[in-house]
TrEMBL record:
Keywords: Oxidoreductase. Substrate binds at residue 116. InterPro entries: AKR (IPR020471), AKR5G (IPR044500), Aldo/ket_reductase_CS (IPR018170), NAD(P)_OxRdtase_dom_sf (IPR036812), NADP_OxRdtase_dom (IPR023210). Belongs to the aldo/keto reductase family. This is Aldo/keto reductase. The active site is at 54 (proton donor). Pfam families: Aldo_ket_red. One of its GO terms (molecular function) is oxidoreductase activity. Residues 31-263 form the NADP-dependent oxidoreductase domain. It comes from the Bacteria. The record marks 83 as: Lowers pKa of active site Tyr. SUPFAM superfamilies: NAD(P)-linked oxidoreductase (SSF51430).
Length: 280
């Protein structure tokens, strides 16, 4: 049983990544974000997930620095992720984007760097840049985000290094079974963004019943479901109480029947863009 906030999963290159992290999507570059990241780290979070396009890497970096100081930990204890945006996909431009993200974050390296979206005709050059950064020891792990099976197959035909992570939209209404099956077969770890479906599942009666049975919130039930499905999860919140609550999912376990009930809620319903029809 995964029973601790600091529990990790071992990626296909041997790097260990926490099962739970804090996402910072759609949080303004502001003192509020600094405080959120600091609060998360102070309360035991060790993984923070950001991206260049979020426009908040400066505050994210300040929060990391203040959080390390507050928690009395060093950089090596954290797992920091960023992503290269579509406009920067390309070999040289991806390397430049990486350096820009590092500077904004105030860091010497990232633990994970991802291609944010599979822009046709561009993501292979970007992947070569990620391979270069990885081989140079500038980043601990590399991966992709929002890649469907055909994107992964196409990438891996020419890749020297297999992605370690595929971060995708994943929640009870979108269980991504084909993507997850392919990733499992190829030892690529799946990670969830928008695990709570931007709050659209909080009135679901099945989830309410399961939450009542465990004396937990619906959000906690969904995050626990993620982990029991072998999916890393990075819920976003700027509220201290919610950040702490989201981390309190390691003192209970869903039954197999409960997991299946939640799995059955799938409708292949997205709240974010479709990777095959995204207007880049």
């Amino acid at each position: 049983m995964i029973n601790n906030l600091k529990n990790t999963v071992t990626l296909n290159n041997g790097v260990k990544m926490p099962w739970l992290g804090l996402g910072v999507f759609r949080v303004e570059d502001s003192p509020n974000l600094v405080d959120s990241v600091k609060t998360a780290i102070k309360n035991g979070y060790r993984s923070i997930d950001g991206a260049a396009i979020y426009g908040n890497e400066v505050s994210m970096g300040k929060g990391i620095a203040e959080g390390m100081k507050a928690a009395g930990i060093s950089r090596e204890n954290l797992f920091i992720t960023s992503k290269v945006w579509n406009a920067d996909l390309g070999y040289e431009s991806t390397i430049k984007a990486y350096e820009t993200s590092l500077k904004k974050l105030g860091l010497d390296y990232l633990d994970l760097y991802l291609i944010h979206w599979p822009v046709e005709g561009k993501y292979k050059d970007a992947w070569r840049a990620l391979e270069y950064l990885y081989k140079q020891g500038r980043v601990k792990a590399i991966g992709v985000s929002n890649f469907q099976v055909h994107h992964l197959e196409n990438l891996m035909k020419d890749a020297e290094i297999k992605p370690m992570i595929n971060q995708v939209e994943f929640h009870p209404r979108l269980t991504q079974e084909k993507v997850r099956a392919f990733c499992k077969e190829n030892d690529i770890q799946v990670e969830a963004w928008s695990p709570l479906m931007v709050g659209k599942l909080l009135d679901n009666e099945i989830l309410k019943e399961i939450a009542h049975n465990h004396n937990k919130s619906i959000a906690q039930i969904i995050l626990r479901w993620d982990i029991q499905n072998g999916v890393i999860t990075i819920p976003k919140s700027t509220k201290v109480g919610r950040i702490i609550e989201n981390s309190q999912i390691f003192d209970f376990e869903l039954t197999n029947e409960e997991v299946e009930k939640i799995n059955f809620l799938n409708q292949d319903l997205r709240v974010g863009p479709d990777p095959d029809n995204f207007d880049f």
